[in-house]
């Protein structure tokens, strides 16, 4: 009994000392620092709110008052009836399909490209295979030969090294002599499946409008209903296409090329300096450089291309790292080039630097993570620092509502989408800092894993397999997410016991979401 009393007394002394140190440090150090953090977060939140409100107003005006692209620009359908001209009236088009170990989906994009409604003698299909798996390479080459035997002009291209990754493959593909006569190049990733009329609907914009460099189609997702993870992604990407791309196209004839599902004028690529591999967002890099040369872009919301969303949490995290790190790194490298540019006006420079890059690619990630996952929970431990209710609740609710307009069918998932986006904001913020500081993983390129019909086919061939638990540490267990879950649980518990703000309801829900992510129960879990 004496030993137990001694241990209890020791624990009590340690707890008392920690409490005393907390009180000593809180007033002179923690309170001022936390107040500054709150002010900074509120400023960032207002920047994001104004940006979202601006885009919301613009998109309404665009939908109500602005003419559709085929009325704003000259557009005439391709004429098949002129027998004298024949296929010579059609420009020669290059289709590039970059691949890397795409075992599950390679047939999809090759088949879709070969079925495009375009004269076969005016179409060149180029499969750029950087695969390292010899079995996959043989499979892709065999598929190309199969289509070539049907009379399609399809070429299988490989490189000795993967230098430059996707940008390197696309750049190398344009160097071959057999593509010199091509005026336009359309790019489809391995999981993309365009409709047969894709070229007939997009190329007239390029033919009749010599200042247009890019026509971008909208992504649609064949596996959006596969799991909750794909539904969350659909909500985010639908907002990007429905609002961000449409606003950029309508107001400044500029937006970020999405890397696939779009068609370029090759002359514009050449004038902009070609493909560069200095960041992991070679598509955005090319788009910004071409825009600075005075080229215009057109986004067609009704030109839809089916594709696949990453359905495993690991693949999604790697994709988001690349999509967050790359823009921040590109911003670091191009901001002064944009400022010094003489060919675009000040308003467009402001739009590209402030709206396109700074708010959407940097501030949006940081305020989501720091404000709602760090600063707001910390204020529960430091009651001397208060966050105005309009900043903690009202403005976030308005921003979230504006974000939901792209996917009305998922409005009932909105609250969970917020919690999940807060979890992902940690990864995006970390990647953003890596890009801004050009740290170790700044140029890390991990190809997004596509499952295609692999799981579906396995289910048909065998009895359902239980989800694999995987190793204790590795792909499934994520200590950083679990660490944030513990931190938030402590903040929420403190609010329950001693606080008066009742934010613990939100905090505990965020704890659950971080915990689910931390144990890897997000998305499709591939059976081992």
TrEMBL record:
- Which parts of the chain are coiled coil? none
Its membrane topology is listed as: Multi-pass membrane protein
Q: Which residues cross the membrane?
A: 36-62, 350-381, 387-405, 477-497, 503-526
**Compartmental location:** Golgi apparatus membrane
Kindly report the protein's main subcellular placement as a broad class: Golgi
Recorded GO MF terms:
glucomannan 4-beta-mannosyltransferase activity; mannan synthase activity
Q: Which GO terms describe its biological process?
A: cell wall organization
Enzyme Commission number(s) of this protein:
2.4.1.32
Keywords on this record?
Answer: Cell wall biogenesis/degradation, Glycosyltransferase, Golgi apparatus, Membrane, Transferase, Transmembrane, Transmembrane helix
A GO cellular component annotated for this chain's UniProt record is: Golgi membrane
Please tell me whether the keyword Transferase is annotated for this protein.
yes
What is a single Pfam family found in this protein's UniProt entry?
Glyco_trans_2_3
| Organism superkingdom | Eukaryota
Q: Which residues form the Glycosyltransferase 2-like domain?
A: 184-395
Q: Which reaction does it catalyse?
A: GDP-mannose + (glucomannan)n = GDP + (glucomannan)n+1
Similarity comment: Belongs to the glycosyltransferase 2 family. Plant cellulose synthase-like A subfamily.
Task: State the name under which the record lists this protein.
Answer: glucomannan 4-beta-mannosyltransferase
């Amino acid at each position: 009994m004496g030993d137990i009393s001694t241990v209890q007394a020791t624990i009590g002394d340690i707890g008392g000392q920690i409490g005393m140190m907390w009180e000593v440090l809180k007033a002179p150090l923690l309170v001022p620092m936390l107040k500054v953090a709150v002010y900074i977060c509120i400023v960032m939140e207002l920047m994001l709110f104004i940006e979202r409100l601006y885009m919301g107003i613009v998109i309404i005006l665009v939908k109500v008052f602005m003419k559709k692209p085929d009325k704003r620009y000259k557009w005439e359908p391709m004429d098949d009836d002129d027998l004298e001209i024949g296929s010579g009236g059609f420009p020669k088009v290059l289709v590039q399909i970059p691949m890397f170990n795409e075992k599950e989906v390679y047939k999809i994009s090759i088949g879709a490209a070969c079925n495009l409604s375009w004269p076969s003698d005016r179409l060149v299909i180029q499969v750029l295979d950087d695969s390292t798996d010899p079995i996959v390479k043989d499979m892709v080459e065999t598929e190309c030969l199969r289509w070539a035997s049907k009379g399609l002009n399809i070429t299988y291209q490989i490189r000795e090294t993967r230098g430059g990754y996707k940008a390197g493959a696309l750049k190398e593909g344009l160097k071959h002599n057999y593509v010199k006569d091509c005026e336009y190049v359309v790019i489809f990733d391995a999981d993309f499946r365009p409709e047969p009329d894709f070229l007939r609907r997009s190329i007239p914009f390029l033919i009749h409008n010599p200042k247009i460099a890019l026509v971008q189609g909208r992504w649609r997702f064949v596996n959006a209903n596969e799991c909750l993870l794909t539904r969350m992604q659909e909500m985010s990407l639908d907002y990007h296409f429905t609002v961000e791309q449409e606003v950029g196209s309508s107001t400044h004839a500029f937006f970020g090329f999405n890397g696939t599902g779009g068609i370029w004028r090759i002359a514009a690529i050449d004038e902009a300096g070609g493909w560069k591999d200095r960041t992991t967002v070679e598509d955005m890099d090319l788009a910004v450089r071409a825009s600075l040369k005075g080229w215009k872009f057109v986004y067609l919301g009704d030109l839809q291309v089916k594709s696949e969303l990453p359905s495993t949490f690991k693949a999604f995290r790697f994709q988001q790292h690349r999509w967050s790190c790359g823009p921040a790194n590109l911003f670091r490298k191009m901001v002064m080039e944009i400022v010094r540019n003489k060919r675009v006006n000040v308003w467009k420079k402001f739009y590209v630097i402030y709206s396109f890059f700074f708010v959407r690619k940097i501030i949006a990630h940081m305020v989501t993570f720091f404000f709602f996952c760090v600063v707001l929970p910390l204020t529960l431990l430091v009651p001397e620092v208060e966050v105005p209710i309009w900043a903690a609740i009202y403005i976030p609710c308005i921003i979230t509502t504006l974000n939901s307009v792209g996917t009305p069918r998922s409005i009932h998932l909105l609250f969970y989408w917020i919690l999940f986006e807060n979890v992902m904001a940690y990864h995006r913020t970390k990647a953003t800092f890596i890009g801004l500081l050009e740290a170790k993983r700044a140029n890390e390129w991990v190809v997004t894993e596509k499952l295609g019909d692999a799981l579906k086919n396995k289910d048909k061939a065998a009895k359902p397999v239980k989800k694999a638990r995987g190793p204790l540490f590795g792909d499934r267990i994520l200590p950083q997410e679990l660490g944030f879950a513990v931190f938030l649980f402590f903040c929420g518990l403190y609010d329950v016991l001693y606080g008066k703000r009742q934010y613990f309801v939100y905090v505990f829900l965020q704890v659950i979401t971080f915990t689910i992510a931390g144990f890897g129960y997000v998305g499709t879990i591939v059976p081992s």
